[in-house]
Amino acid sequence: MKDQASALRQIVDNLKKQRMREPGEGARIICVTSGKGGVGKTSISVNLGISLAKKGLRVLLFDADFGLSNIDVMLGVSPQYDLSYVLRGQKKIGEIIAEGPGGISFVSGGSGMNVLLKMSEIQLAAIIDNLVLLEDAADIIIFDTGAGVNPLIMRMIRSSQETIVVTTPEPTAIMDAYALVKSIAADVPDGALRLLVNRAESSAEAESTLQKFVAVVKLYQKTDMDLLGYVLDDPSVSRGVRIQQPFVLSYPRSAATRNIETIAWKLLDRRPETANAGIRGFLSRMLGRGL
Ligand SMILES: Nc1ncnc2c1ncn2[C@@H]1O[C@H](COP(=O)(O)OP(=O)(O)O)[C@@H](O)[C@H]1O
Ligand SMILES: [Mg+2]
Fold first, then answer.
1. What CATH number labels 29-287?
2. What confidence score (pLDDT) does residue 261 get?
3. Domain locations in the chain?
4. Residue located nearest, by CA, to atom 25 of ligand 1
5. Per residue in 12-61, pLDDT tens?
6. Buried-state track 181-190, b at ≥16 Cβ within 10 A, e below 16
7. Which residues have C-beta atoms less than 6 Å from ligand 1?
8. Which of 41, 176, 229, 246 is the residue whose CA sits 20 to 30 A from 256?
Protein backbone atom coordinates (compact mmCIF):
# COMPACT_ATOMS: atom_id res chain seq x y z
CA MET A 1 0.00 0.00 0.00
CA LYS A 2 2.74 2.36 1.03
CA ASP A 3 4.59 1.69 -2.23
CA GLN A 4 1.50 2.35 -4.25
CA ALA A 5 0.84 5.63 -2.47
CA SER A 6 4.39 6.85 -2.97
CA ALA A 7 4.29 5.85 -6.64
CA LEU A 8 1.11 7.87 -7.05
CA ARG A 9 2.60 10.84 -5.26
CA GLN A 10 5.54 10.73 -7.62
CA ILE A 11 3.26 10.77 -10.65
CA VAL A 12 1.36 13.73 -9.25
CA ASP A 13 4.64 15.55 -8.50
CA ASN A 14 5.84 14.92 -12.03
CA LEU A 15 2.58 16.18 -13.43
CA LYS A 16 2.88 19.39 -11.42
CA LYS A 17 6.44 19.88 -12.62
CA GLN A 18 5.36 19.54 -16.21
CA ARG A 19 2.64 22.13 -15.76
CA MET A 20 4.87 24.58 -13.97
CA ARG A 21 7.96 24.81 -16.06
CA GLU A 22 10.99 26.63 -14.86
CA PRO A 23 11.69 29.66 -17.04
CA GLY A 24 13.84 28.64 -20.00
CA GLU A 25 13.22 24.95 -19.45
CA GLY A 26 11.20 24.44 -22.58
CA ALA A 27 8.43 22.10 -23.58
CA ARG A 28 8.82 18.34 -23.55
CA ILE A 29 9.30 17.20 -27.12
CA ILE A 30 8.20 13.73 -28.17
CA CYS A 31 8.70 12.31 -31.63
CA VAL A 32 6.36 9.49 -32.75
CA THR A 33 7.77 7.37 -35.55
CA SER A 34 7.85 3.86 -37.06
CA GLY A 35 9.79 1.70 -39.47
CA LYS A 36 6.78 0.68 -41.54
CA GLY A 37 3.93 2.95 -42.58
CA GLY A 38 0.33 2.51 -41.50
CA VAL A 39 1.10 1.01 -38.10
CA GLY A 40 -0.83 3.66 -36.16
CA LYS A 41 1.50 6.62 -35.53
CA THR A 42 -1.12 9.26 -36.23
CA SER A 43 -3.86 7.43 -34.30
CA ILE A 44 -1.55 7.19 -31.31
CA SER A 45 -0.23 10.76 -31.52
CA VAL A 46 -3.72 12.21 -31.69
CA ASN A 47 -5.30 10.11 -28.95
CA LEU A 48 -2.30 10.23 -26.63
CA GLY A 49 -2.23 14.01 -27.10
CA ILE A 50 -5.89 14.31 -26.12
CA SER A 51 -5.40 12.00 -23.16
CA LEU A 52 -2.52 14.17 -21.90
CA ALA A 53 -4.57 17.32 -22.48
CA LYS A 54 -7.36 15.83 -20.35
CA LYS A 55 -4.86 15.63 -17.50
CA GLY A 56 -4.39 19.37 -17.68
CA LEU A 57 -1.30 19.62 -19.88
CA ARG A 58 -1.14 21.95 -22.82
CA VAL A 59 -0.47 19.69 -25.79
CA LEU A 60 0.54 20.75 -29.27
CA LEU A 61 0.38 18.18 -32.05
CA PHE A 62 2.73 18.88 -34.89
CA ASP A 63 2.03 17.10 -38.16
CA ALA A 64 5.54 16.47 -39.44
CA ASP A 65 4.67 13.70 -41.90
CA PHE A 66 5.18 15.75 -45.03
CA GLY A 67 4.48 12.76 -47.27
CA LEU A 68 1.16 11.63 -45.86
CA SER A 69 0.04 14.28 -43.44
CA ASN A 70 -3.38 13.38 -42.16
CA ILE A 71 -3.78 14.56 -38.58
CA ASP A 72 -6.23 17.14 -39.87
CA VAL A 73 -8.40 14.40 -41.35
CA MET A 74 -8.36 12.43 -38.12
CA LEU A 75 -9.21 15.49 -36.07
CA GLY A 76 -11.81 16.71 -38.49
CA VAL A 77 -10.12 20.12 -38.42
CA SER A 78 -8.30 21.66 -41.35
CA PRO A 79 -5.98 24.50 -40.53
CA GLN A 80 -5.77 27.17 -43.20
CA TYR A 81 -2.03 27.69 -42.98
CA ASP A 82 1.02 25.53 -42.40
CA LEU A 83 4.60 26.07 -41.30
CA SER A 84 5.69 27.17 -44.76
CA TYR A 85 3.72 30.43 -44.28
CA VAL A 86 5.75 31.18 -41.16
CA LEU A 87 9.01 30.37 -42.93
CA ARG A 88 8.08 32.72 -45.75
CA GLY A 89 7.30 35.43 -43.22
CA GLN A 90 3.65 35.60 -44.22
CA LYS A 91 2.24 34.46 -40.88
CA LYS A 92 3.25 34.49 -37.25
CA ILE A 93 3.44 31.10 -35.56
CA GLY A 94 0.40 31.96 -33.40
CA GLU A 95 -1.64 32.39 -36.55
CA ILE A 96 -1.00 28.87 -37.80
CA ILE A 97 -1.98 27.08 -34.57
CA ALA A 98 -5.43 25.52 -34.89
CA GLU A 99 -7.64 24.28 -32.08
CA GLY A 100 -8.36 20.57 -32.22
CA PRO A 101 -10.93 18.57 -30.25
CA GLY A 102 -10.36 17.56 -26.63
CA GLY A 103 -8.34 20.66 -25.78
CA ILE A 104 -5.33 20.08 -28.02
CA SER A 105 -3.69 22.50 -30.42
CA PHE A 106 -2.47 21.52 -33.80
CA VAL A 107 0.12 22.73 -36.31
CA SER A 108 0.62 21.42 -39.80
CA GLY A 109 4.25 21.23 -40.93
CA GLY A 110 3.26 20.87 -44.58
CA SER A 111 6.01 21.53 -47.06
CA GLY A 112 7.63 23.73 -44.41
CA MET A 113 9.55 20.83 -42.90
CA ASN A 114 11.70 20.40 -45.99
CA VAL A 115 12.13 24.14 -46.39
CA LEU A 116 13.26 24.44 -42.76
CA LEU A 117 16.13 22.05 -43.31
CA LYS A 118 17.39 23.87 -46.35
CA MET A 119 17.46 27.29 -44.74
CA SER A 120 20.69 29.16 -44.19
CA GLU A 121 21.74 30.23 -40.73
CA ILE A 122 20.81 33.83 -41.43
CA GLN A 123 17.37 32.92 -42.72
CA LEU A 124 16.87 30.72 -39.72
CA ALA A 125 18.02 33.32 -37.22
CA ALA A 126 15.35 35.64 -38.62
CA ILE A 127 12.52 33.27 -37.81
CA ILE A 128 13.82 31.37 -34.81
CA ASP A 129 12.29 33.72 -32.26
CA ASN A 130 9.03 33.16 -33.98
CA LEU A 131 9.33 29.37 -33.86
CA VAL A 132 10.36 29.39 -30.24
CA LEU A 133 7.00 30.98 -29.44
CA LEU A 134 5.49 27.53 -30.01
CA GLU A 135 6.80 26.79 -26.59
CA ASP A 136 4.46 29.30 -25.00
CA ALA A 137 1.56 27.35 -26.41
CA ALA A 138 2.53 23.99 -24.97
CA ASP A 139 3.90 21.87 -22.15
CA ILE A 140 4.27 18.91 -24.51
CA ILE A 141 4.86 18.99 -28.25
CA ILE A 142 4.20 15.72 -30.11
CA PHE A 143 5.74 15.39 -33.58
CA ASP A 144 3.87 12.87 -35.71
CA THR A 145 6.49 11.89 -38.30
CA GLY A 146 6.56 9.69 -41.34
CA ALA A 147 7.85 6.13 -41.47
CA GLY A 148 11.13 4.59 -42.42
CA VAL A 149 14.84 5.16 -42.44
CA ASN A 150 14.76 8.56 -44.09
CA PRO A 151 17.47 11.17 -43.42
CA LEU A 152 15.02 13.87 -42.37
CA ILE A 153 13.13 11.59 -39.99
CA MET A 154 16.42 10.33 -38.57
CA ARG A 155 17.46 13.88 -37.87
CA MET A 156 14.19 14.56 -36.09
CA ILE A 157 14.62 11.45 -33.96
CA ARG A 158 18.18 12.34 -33.02
CA SER A 159 17.08 15.84 -32.09
CA SER A 160 14.14 14.79 -29.93
CA GLN A 161 14.85 13.94 -26.39
CA GLU A 162 12.24 11.21 -26.54
CA THR A 163 11.09 9.06 -29.40
CA ILE A 164 8.20 6.63 -29.43
CA VAL A 165 8.77 3.85 -31.96
CA VAL A 166 5.46 2.30 -32.97
CA THR A 167 5.22 -1.19 -34.39
CA THR A 168 2.54 -3.85 -34.76
CA PRO A 169 3.29 -7.47 -33.80
CA GLU A 170 3.54 -8.38 -37.51
CA PRO A 171 7.01 -9.63 -38.50
CA THR A 172 7.25 -7.14 -41.39
CA ALA A 173 6.56 -4.17 -39.09
CA ILE A 174 8.97 -5.54 -36.49
CA MET A 175 11.77 -5.96 -39.04
CA ASP A 176 11.30 -2.38 -40.25
CA ALA A 177 11.17 -1.06 -36.68
CA TYR A 178 14.39 -2.92 -35.94
CA ALA A 179 16.11 -1.47 -39.01
CA LEU A 180 15.12 2.01 -37.82
CA VAL A 181 16.28 1.44 -34.25
CA LYS A 182 19.51 -0.07 -35.50
CA SER A 183 20.37 3.01 -37.48
CA ILE A 184 19.71 5.41 -34.61
CA ALA A 185 20.61 3.39 -31.52
CA ALA A 186 24.25 4.44 -31.46
CA ASP A 187 23.33 8.12 -31.49
CA VAL A 188 20.65 8.31 -28.84
CA PRO A 189 20.99 8.00 -25.08
CA ASP A 190 19.60 4.97 -23.24
CA GLY A 191 15.91 5.22 -22.46
CA ALA A 192 15.28 7.91 -25.05
CA LEU A 193 13.74 5.33 -27.35
CA ARG A 194 10.41 4.06 -26.17
CA LEU A 195 8.67 1.10 -27.77
CA LEU A 196 4.92 0.93 -28.30
CA VAL A 197 3.17 -2.10 -29.79
CA ASN A 198 -0.05 -1.27 -31.58
CA ARG A 199 -2.83 -3.57 -32.84
CA ALA A 200 -1.91 -6.46 -30.57
CA GLU A 201 -4.48 -9.24 -30.41
CA SER A 202 -3.96 -9.81 -26.71
CA SER A 203 -1.96 -8.37 -23.86
CA ALA A 204 0.10 -11.58 -23.88
CA GLU A 205 1.03 -11.07 -27.54
CA ALA A 206 1.83 -7.41 -26.85
CA GLU A 207 4.00 -8.16 -23.83
CA SER A 208 5.93 -10.86 -25.63
CA THR A 209 6.54 -8.58 -28.64
CA LEU A 210 7.74 -5.78 -26.37
CA GLN A 211 10.02 -8.01 -24.34
CA LYS A 212 11.59 -9.77 -27.30
CA PHE A 213 12.19 -6.61 -29.28
CA VAL A 214 13.79 -4.79 -26.38
CA ALA A 215 15.96 -7.83 -25.57
CA VAL A 216 17.28 -8.02 -29.15
CA VAL A 217 18.03 -4.28 -29.20
CA LYS A 218 19.87 -4.59 -25.90
CA LEU A 219 21.88 -7.59 -27.06
CA TYR A 220 22.87 -6.45 -30.52
CA GLN A 221 22.66 -2.66 -30.33
CA LYS A 222 23.74 -2.28 -26.69
CA THR A 223 20.88 0.15 -26.17
CA ASP A 224 18.23 0.15 -23.46
CA MET A 225 14.78 0.83 -24.84
CA ASP A 226 11.90 1.80 -22.61
CA LEU A 227 8.84 -0.46 -22.78
CA LEU A 228 6.09 2.11 -23.08
CA GLY A 229 3.19 -0.30 -23.56
CA TYR A 230 0.63 -1.40 -26.07
CA VAL A 231 -2.71 -0.67 -27.69
CA LEU A 232 -4.91 -3.61 -28.57
CA ASP A 233 -6.41 -4.08 -32.00
CA ASP A 234 -9.80 -2.49 -31.48
CA PRO A 235 -12.55 -1.57 -33.98
CA SER A 236 -13.14 1.72 -32.08
CA VAL A 237 -9.86 3.00 -33.53
CA SER A 238 -10.96 2.74 -37.16
CA ARG A 239 -14.53 3.76 -36.30
CA GLY A 240 -13.09 6.91 -34.74
CA VAL A 241 -11.06 7.55 -37.90
CA ARG A 242 -14.16 7.12 -40.06
CA ILE A 243 -16.28 9.55 -38.08
CA GLN A 244 -13.29 11.90 -37.68
CA GLN A 245 -13.54 11.81 -33.90
CA PRO A 246 -10.55 10.48 -31.98
CA PHE A 247 -11.51 7.29 -30.14
CA VAL A 248 -10.57 8.58 -26.68
CA LEU A 249 -13.42 11.08 -27.15
CA SER A 250 -15.92 9.02 -29.13
CA TYR A 251 -15.29 5.67 -27.40
CA PRO A 252 -14.09 6.57 -23.92
CA ARG A 253 -14.76 3.10 -22.53
CA SER A 254 -13.06 1.16 -25.31
CA ALA A 255 -10.05 -1.08 -24.77
CA ALA A 256 -7.93 1.22 -26.93
CA THR A 257 -8.82 4.22 -24.73
CA ARG A 258 -7.85 2.29 -21.60
CA ASN A 259 -4.52 1.37 -23.21
CA ILE A 260 -3.83 4.98 -24.24
CA GLU A 261 -4.65 6.19 -20.71
CA THR A 262 -2.12 3.75 -19.26
CA ILE A 263 0.50 4.95 -21.73
CA ALA A 264 -0.22 8.61 -20.95
CA TRP A 265 0.29 8.01 -17.22
CA LYS A 266 3.51 6.12 -17.89
CA LEU A 267 4.82 8.97 -20.01
CA LEU A 268 4.06 11.46 -17.27
CA ASP A 269 5.76 9.23 -14.77
CA ARG A 270 8.86 8.75 -16.93
CA ARG A 271 9.91 12.27 -17.48
CA PRO A 272 13.40 12.63 -18.97
CA GLU A 273 15.96 13.70 -16.41
CA THR A 274 17.96 16.11 -18.49
CA ALA A 275 16.73 19.49 -19.64
CA ASN A 276 16.26 19.52 -23.39
CA ALA A 277 15.94 23.27 -23.87
CA GLY A 278 12.61 22.69 -25.59
CA ILE A 279 12.01 23.74 -29.15
CA ARG A 280 15.21 25.79 -29.31
CA GLY A 281 17.33 22.77 -28.35
CA PHE A 282 15.37 20.58 -30.74
CA LEU A 283 15.88 22.93 -33.69
CA SER A 284 19.54 23.50 -32.96
CA ARG A 285 20.18 19.76 -32.81
CA MET A 286 18.14 19.18 -35.91
CA LEU A 287 19.95 21.76 -37.91
CA GLY A 288 23.29 20.83 -36.42
CA ARG A 289 24.30 24.27 -35.23
CA GLY A 290 24.08 26.43 -32.17
CA LEU A 291 21.18 28.82 -31.98
N1 LIG B 1 -5.17 -0.25 -32.40
C2 LIG B 1 -5.81 -0.29 -33.58
N3 LIG B 1 -6.88 -1.10 -33.76
C4 LIG B 1 -7.52 -1.14 -34.94
N5 LIG B 1 -7.20 -0.42 -36.01
C6 LIG B 1 -6.14 0.41 -35.90
C7 LIG B 1 -5.39 0.52 -34.69
N8 LIG B 1 -4.41 1.44 -34.89
C9 LIG B 1 -4.52 1.86 -36.17
N10 LIG B 1 -5.56 1.25 -36.78
C11 LIG B 1 -6.00 1.45 -38.18
O12 LIG B 1 -4.87 1.66 -39.00
C13 LIG B 1 -5.07 2.82 -39.81
C14 LIG B 1 -3.75 3.51 -40.02
O15 LIG B 1 -3.35 4.14 -38.84
P16 LIG B 1 -2.53 5.51 -38.81
O17 LIG B 1 -2.59 6.01 -37.42
O18 LIG B 1 -2.98 6.42 -39.90
O19 LIG B 1 -1.08 4.95 -39.15
P20 LIG B 1 0.26 5.76 -39.54
O21 LIG B 1 0.11 7.15 -39.03
O22 LIG B 1 1.35 4.99 -38.88
O23 LIG B 1 0.37 5.69 -41.03
C24 LIG B 1 -6.10 3.65 -39.06
O25 LIG B 1 -6.85 4.41 -39.95
C26 LIG B 1 -6.93 2.63 -38.34
O27 LIG B 1 -8.01 2.26 -39.16
MG1 LIG C 1 0.34 9.00 -40.07
1. 3.40.50.300
2. 98
3. 29-287
4. 238
5. 677 666 666 665 578 899 999 999 999 999 999 999 999 999 999 999 99
6. bbebbeebee
7. 34, 37-43, 198-199, 231, 233-234, 237-238, 241, 256
8. 176
